[in-house]
Amino acid sequence: MSYFSGSKKITVGLDIENDSVKMVKLRHTPQGPKLMGFGIAELSPSNKDLIETRKKEISSAIEKILTEEKIKGKRVISFISGPSVHIWLAKMPSLPAEKLEEAIKWMVKEKAPFDLEETTLDYSVLDKVTENGAQKVEVVAVVAKNKVIREKMDLLKRVGLKSAAMDVASLALLNSFKVNNEWKKDEIIALVDIEANTTHLAIVKNAKLEFSREITFGGDTITESLRDRLNLSDLESAQKMRERYGILDEDSDKGTGKSSDEATDKAFRVSQIIKIELGKLVSELRLSFNSYRAQCLKDRIDRIALSGSLAQLKNLDKFLAASLKVSVEMANPLDKIPLDSKCKKKRYQQPQFLSPGLNIATGLALGKGEAINLSPAKERWARSARRTRTILLPSLYFVTLLLLLATGYDSLNQKAAVYEKELQSKKAKITSLQPKFDRFETLVRDLNRWNERYTSIIRLRESSIPWVPVLAQFSEAIPEKAWLRELSLKEGSTDPNQKKDSFILMIRGSIKWEKLVAELSLVEFIRELEKSPYLNDVRLQSTDRNTRYGHEVIDFSIAAHLPRREEISSSTYTSGERVERSGR
Fold first, then answer.
1. Which residues fall in a coiled-coil region (predicted)?
2. What phi and psi values does residue 196 have, to the nearest 5 degrees?
C-alpha cells in the first residue's frame, strides 16, 4: 500500500551510500512524474570507518541538501541492503491474499538464514502467469533484520525525517529504467549500479524483475587498492588519482610501453591496478549471469545499463563491454522526467548534472513505496489478521459455501492421491534408467573431448607457429622471483572480431610477494609480452594472493592471441624461422 495515495503527490527518494548522499524530489501528475529538485553531497573517504563521525557527516549532508533544495516534507523513501537483507523471486500458486501471504511466510522461513521473529517481511505480486494450465503468480519477497531497519530509522530521526517507505535497490533500479528507457519485447537487460562498497544487480525482461543480487564490490575497493599498492598517504589522494586517470583505452595502454614520461607511466600503473580490481567484479558478474541463465533457462544477456557513483570512471563502460562481451550503455535516470513548472533552476537543465549516480534515488521516488515497504509503520501482518476475522464472520451463505468447497476438496484429494501414485511409479522408472543415462553422457563427453584435442593438434600443426622464438622471448621477459606454472593453448581468440582459426595462449604463474614490487613486475611482464611480434592482445585475466612453498605470492593468469602466419609480417616470420632452425 502506498503512503502517497490520495492527496500525497510529492515523493522524495533518499540514497545514502558510503561515499555520498543523494536525494531526488518528484511531483506525480496525471501526465507523469515531474522533477522538483535533486541534490548530491559527497562524503569524506577518511571517515568511513569512524561510525559516529560518519553518522554526523551523513546527517550534515542530508540537512545541506534539504536546505539547498528547499525540501520541506519530512517523509522520505529510502532503501536497505547488505547481508541482513534477502530477496527472493518465486512463482506461487494463485491463492487468496491471506493464503498467499502464509505460503510466502513458509517459503521464507525455509530459506532465510536467520530467525523470522527478528525480521520484517514484505512481498509484492509482480505478475499473473499460466504454467501447464495452472494459474500462478510471480512474487518478490524481501526479509530484513529489524536491527538494520532500526539503524536506518535512527539515522533519519537525527535530521527530523520519517520513513514513509523502505524499499530495496533492485526494485528502485527497475522503476527508474521503466520510465527512462525503451526496450524490445523479450529483451534481457542487466541493470548494474556500482556504488561505494556494493554493486546492485537487477536483470529485467519485459519490464519485470527476473533476477536480483548484491555484490560486495564498489569504488572503495579500487580506492583502497590504489592507496596500498602505490603507497599513498590517504584515501583522498587515491580517490583523486582514480578519478583523474581511470582506465586507459587500448591505444594508450600500448603507448605506455615505449614512453618514459613519468605522468604517462603513472597513468598506466593506475589503470592496471584498476583493471586488476575490476577483474573481481567481472568474475562476479559472469557468475551472476550464469546463475540467471541456469535459473531462468535463458541463454543470453542483451545489454547492460550502467549506473552508480563509479559509473563515470573513465572507460569503465568500454572495459566491461570488452570483458563481458555485452554492449554497455550509461543510464541517465532523469533523461525523460521533465522539470516541474515550479522548478526553473538553470542547473537542472544542464545535461552534465543528470548523473547516473542518481539512479537509485530516482527509482525510490518513482516507486512511491508501493511494491515493497519494510518500514515498521506499515504493520502488514496486523491488517491481514483483521481481514481474516472479517471474512470468518458467521453467515449462513458463507457456511453453505464452505460445505460445498469441503466436498470438492475431498474429491480433489482422492484424485491427487491417484496422480501421486502414478508419479512415484514413473519416478522409480526414471531412477532405474539414470545410471545408464549417466554412463552415456560420460562417453559422449569423453568423445567430444578427444575430438576437440585431435582437431586442435591438427590445426596447431598446420598453423606453423615458430615456437622457439616465442619461448625464447618468454624466458627473457619472465621477471625475477617469478615462475610459470602452466602454458596451455586453445582454439579461439581474445577478440571476438578475430577469425576462429586462431589460438589463445594461456599463461599461469606466480610472483613472490613484495609490496609494490610484485605488481609492478607483473605490469612490466605484460608490457614486454605486448612488444612481441608473435603475440597480440595480451590481457591480464586474474590475480590472487596465495601461499606457495612457504612464500606469499601473487598467482596470475594472462591470455594472449597467437596470430596466424599471414597476420605476422614476412620479415618477422622469416627471422623467427631462422631462429627456430638454428635452435634445432
1. none
2. -70, -45
The three grid cell numbers given for residue 322, joined into one nine-digit string? 570488452
Asked if residue 1 has pLDDT above 50, the reply is: no
Q: What is the pLDDT of residue 459?
A: 59
Any idea which residue has 475431498 for its cell? 410
What pLDDT is stored for residue 192 in this prediction?
Answer: 97
For residue 158, what pLDDT band results from cuts at 50, 70 and 90?
confident
- Rg of the chain over all Cα atoms, to the nearest angstrom: 29
Q: Are strands 10-16 and 134-145 parallel, antiparallel or unpaired?
A: unpaired
Here the cell at position 195 is: 556504488
Q: Which CATH class is domain 467-583?
A: alpha beta
Mean pLDDT of 169-175: 95
Rounded Cα distance, 242 and 240, in Å = 5
Q: Which residues, in sequence order, are bridge partners of residue 32?
A: 29
pLDDT tier at 21, thresholds 50, 70, 90: very high
Please name the residues in contact with 537: beta carbons below 8 A apart, sequence gap of 6 or more: 493, 494, 495, 560, 561
More confident residue, 398 or 387: 398
Beta-sheet strand order (sheet of 75-79): 32-42, 20-29, 10-16, 75-79, 162-167
Provide the 10 A C-beta neighbour count for residue 337.
21
Beta carbons of 167 and 15 less than 8 angstroms apart: no
Amino acid 189 reads I
Residue 241, C-beta contacts closer than 8 angstroms, at least 6 positions apart: 226, 230, 232, 270
The identity of residue 492, as a single letter, is: G
Q: Is the dihedral of CA 395, 397, 398, 404 positive or negative?
A: positive
**Per-residue pLDDT tens for 411-443?**
566 667 667 777 777 777 777 777 777 777 788
Q: State whether the Cα torsion 339-343-344-347 is positive or negative.
A: negative
Domain extents in the chain = 398-460, 467-583
User: Which residues 6+ apart lie within 8 Å of 215 measured at CB?
Assistant: 198, 199, 200, 201, 281, 284, 285, 288
Average pLDDT over residues 537-552: 84
Residue 579 cell numbers, joined: 631462429
**Ordered alpha helix ranges (H), 203-335:** 219-229, 235-245, 250-255, 262-296, 316-324
Cell numbers of 499, please?
Answer: 577469425
